[in-house]
Amino acid sequence: MAAAASEQSGTANGISAAAAAVAASAAAADGEDDFVRFRRMSTLSGFMQHATDHGWGPIITAVMRLAAEPNTAALVADLQRLAALNPRFASAPLRHPTTRHCHWRPIPDFDVERDVLRFHALPGADPAAERALFLERSLDQGFDGARAQWEVTLLSYGAAPAVFDLVVRMNHCLGDGTTLFAQVMAVARPVGGGAAAGGAAPRPSRSPPSRRGGVAGLVQLVWGWVASAVMVACGVAKVLTIISRPGDPKCCLTVSAAQVQERKTVATAVVSLESLRRCRGKECTINDVIMACAAGALRRYLLRRGDPLMARKWRAPVLSTILLFGAPRQLAAGQALSANSFASVFVPLDLRNLPQSWFIGVLSYAMRKGTFYVSNLQGPQGRISIADVEIAHMFNFVNPSLAFVLSVMSYGGSATIAVAANTAAMPDPEAFVQDFMAEMNALEAAAGAKEKVT
């Protein structure tokens, strides 16, 4: 059983008809050479955007429980500072009409309050359950390809006026979770005021470079080719690494590419950092404890499901025909108008060479190399605030492409274990979280017993 380590990131159709129209107008107005001015996506980011095109949304989500209601103006100001850190935050993905490569096109008149910030009111009878349902429904919601690839939603609860949650969702094509988290932390501030909590310093967004003439233009063009070649080589190296890995044993947690779009759900649990520290030995790290608990929880879960790594064959039904129904134009003699009569016509369809079929095939091959992802993000050392409001608690998770993603984030003296699962493989992530906690409690008890002996 392999766990793929992750760095940890509208509509579900990715680059939509609106984005296609933008691409067509850009090509018509400026010509295809205009794409030289746009920053090209890396191969991996392009693959993430391609995945979004086909209905799989690799979305990174961070959830922050706020101590009070934030001021809208202050929140907009902080989000504007965040957008200034990275030009991609104010850009939309755009495909080259010929090469089909993804580029970043700056969004005209980008406005954070209009394009990014959302407000959503929930009843508030059970804030925890209502938030969980909101997060579950947002797991597979992608972004309109003609708009910014991130979204911030402020959740309020009618029956609980003192409870507010800030949900930040970002498309993985913007970057890995570690980078994005550092940028979010760069706009946060320590409780009580002071400089930003951490991360890169804001830098002004730059307009795309203009094309030069003469030798300088030739050097600029060649440099662009070299940079593209390096990006492609890095992407190929990552793909070859996946190909060279042996396949993971099949079990009840194995997800096929056809099941990627099944319903997703999230389960969480909070543990104290002190408990995690008590579990580790002298030569161990927190990551060692997390992986040990994950391995033990996985064993417990598979044994309870009655499938401890038993090999199973899986065959995907391939659609080869489509059944069309239509009413006949003329009724047979003696038939009334209310008669139940229809004609059936079988039309053969060749789906082998469709782009989505190819993408699903590649995704299915890659998914056989692992079963789940594990991500561990170290949060800020002290408590922080955003929009002048303290963040009481926060955690993160990622839309799972495999069976599930186990995400761990530390903040304020505790760590949150979040499991985002594909219900086709793991219909009960709460059970896995409970198994994880049971393993951690067992490790903590064993560590305590060892201390008494020594």
UniProtKB/TrEMBL annotation:
A single cellular component GO annotation: plasma membrane
GO MF annotation terms: O-acyltransferase activity
UniProt domain O-acyltransferase WSD1 C-terminal: residue ranges: 363-443
Domain of life: Eukaryota
GO biological process, one term: triglyceride biosynthetic process
Protein name in the entry: O-acyltransferase WSD1 C-terminal domain-containing protein
Organism per entry: Tribonema minus
